[in-house]
Amino acid sequence: MCDVPMMFIDTSHIVAATEAMNQLATDPAVRVLVLRGPDDRAFVGGADINEMAALTPATAEVFITGLKNLCEAARLFPAPVIARLGGWCLGGGLELAMACDLRLASHDAQLGMPEVKVGIPSVIHASLLSRLVGEAQATWMLLTGDTLDATTALRHGLVHRVSAPGELDADVQRTAGQIAGLGPQVMRQQKLLMRQWTELPFEDALDASVKAFGRAFTTGEPQRYMQHFFDRKRAG
Q: What is the DSSP letter of 26?
């Protein structure tokens, strides 16, 4: 398990975090990646408004391309990625969280896309919002800039779990440990397949699934884990 801390994000943070994730992506020993804020005040409180206020049309595109690359580093990371959402998760922070596979939130987390309140549209991975919460809720959030509390975010499917006070780290550790205890190859296969199911035409996605099933038996993991199943059954 690897931890990558996050914060308010300016260009320097975006570049450093992207480089860190891309480097970790080359390490086959990484079984699960956890993204977290520096403390429980925020996962990422959004992009740095001081930097954004000085952007021009040209530099704005450079800035947002960097943020897109950061989110893509999480979305395309070969192993599962968990976003540990303590406190505020806004704008670019929520885009990054939505690019992760699992989102575990503290009881006091606040999530939103408030960009319209400062004169800019929500872009890049905000496009994932309607897939998670549905068209109606996504439209409301994007056009009003309203935030959701943790309980409401859970009800709408924006987060997977909400932790009781003081339990977020334990819940993240438990989930990461559960994933890390499974076969690393099957977890990477499953993540890739899930992405292909959303990106490929249905028939192509079926073909990719059939091929992935066959490749699984080249890794040794089905044989090993099925044998564990048989051994437990005999012992029971």
A: T
Contacts of 117 (CB under 8 A, 6+ apart): 145
Encoding tokens for residue 44? 């990422």
| pTM to 2 decimal places | 0.93
Residue 134 predicted with pLDDT over 70: yes
pLDDT at 6 over 60: no
Instruction: Output the pLDDT for position 7.
Output: 60
The sheet that has 110-112: what strands, in order across it? Answer: 42-44, 88-90, 110-112, 147-149
- What pLDDT shows up at residue 2? 56
For residue 158, name the pLDDT band (cuts at 50, 70, 90): very high
DSSP-assigned states of every residue in 156-181: TTS-SEEEPTT-HHHHHHHHHHHHHT
One-letter identity of residue 171: D
Q: Average of pLDDT values for 30-49?
A: 91
φ/ψ of 7, rounded to 5, equals -170, -165
Hunting for tokens 């990477």 — which residue is that? 188
CA distances from 236 to 101, 166, 210, 223, 229 (A): 35, 37, 33, 20, 11
Q: How many CA within 13 A on the CB side of residue 54?
A: 5
The dihedrals phi and psi of 145, each to the nearest 5 degrees, come to 75, 10
Structure tokens at 195: 């992405």
Q: Which residue, chain included where needed, has tokens 């960097």?
A: 66
